[in-house]
Amino acid sequence: MARAQKITTFLMFEGNAEEAMTFYTSLFDDAGIIDISRYGPGEDGPEGTVRLATFALAGQRFMCIDSYVNHAFGFTPAMSLFVDCADEDEIDRLHRQLAEQGQELMPLGSYGFSPKFGWVNDRFGVSWQLNLPA
């Protein structure tokens, strides 16, 4: 019997978890929303928002929620998703799509440790390091 993944990245959004999951799963192969449960009428969170969801990107599982509590914190680049891209087309595409309406922290370029690397915060505030291995 196969054992489930033991450590899973968990992302907490404030109302746009489903939009983020849909966007992310459109970017990668072997990706999709695996399970999603929503708040119903009279429950703590706004009806229809994500109570808990599991999705996969390139076969890697992630979990997320829509927090109904307004926190004084959000995502930070101190924790980022690092993606080794297969080729230049992939790193260019991912950089373009993830940076749209987001913030470029390091533009695509050669930084010595990689022939092509870029770092962005996407429009949801999640930080991505995109790398083209040598």
Automatic annotation (TrEMBL):
Residues 5-130 form the PhnB-like domain. It comes from the Bacteria. It holds the Pfam family 3-dmu-9_3-mt. This is VOC family protein. It comes from Saccharopolyspora rosea.
